[in-house]
Predict the structure of GntR family transcriptional regulator.
Amino acid sequence: MLLRVDAASTVPLYQQIHDQIILGLAGGGLRPGETLPAVRQLADELNVNMLTVAKGYNLLKAEGYLVSDRRQGTRVAADFQADAVFQQELATQLRLLIAAAKIRGIAAPELQQMITAQYQAFGGKQHA
């Protein structure tokens, strides 16, 4: 797994780790059941504090993307479900992004095209 963080970014380092792991899952770079580096190891590789990596991992665990135990370490969860909590959070985030797009003059067809292109970039099939 190859992660990179940008210390100069306004995005917190733990959020960069979180986001890159989700992108890795969606893009196929990470697979269910795959073991991730230990917190200490990843912190050393990224040259960040261990608490930063732990915060990113803990957020991913809370969201159901990662599981961990003492014997097998931290690994990608085997199954992901779009439960009611996830769907509500998705709707909230989409509402904000759509509002920002509307304010900036992006028309609905253009926005839909952007969403479809991003979805397909992760190997998603378009449904009729």
Notes: The CA atoms of residues 38 and 74 lie 7 Å apart. The longest strand covers residues 66-69.
